[in-house]
Amino acid sequence: MKQAAHNFDFAVCGGGHSTSGSSSSDGGLIIDLSLMRAVTVDPEAKTVTAQGGCIWEDVDATAGTYGLVTVGGTVKHTGIGGLTLGGG
Fold first, then answer.
1. Residue 37 contacts residue 55 (beta carbons within 8 Å)
2. What's the whole-model pTM score?
3. CA dist 27 to 7, 32, 40, Å?
4. pLDDT tens digit string along 58-82?
5. SS3 state at 59
6. Are 29 and 10 within 8 A, CB to CB?
């Protein structure tokens, strides 16, 4: 992605599991979310909230403690944002 006013490349890295290279940049700026891996569960509403650097293992482990499951990736080290949005 190019930032128009300053003409530089940048990418956002969530889980970093991108096979297309969308979570990396050659000489550009990387916004790395990999340390943002908190997951919270509202057991009454049966909802899960996950930060941008979460991988499916984080979500599955936390949701499982409440008897909940998710529909998501089958590879536990895949980032949830990348799988959901098609990036990495």
1. yes
2. 0.78
3. 12, 15, 35
4. 999 999 999 999 888 788 888 888 8
5. helix
6. yes
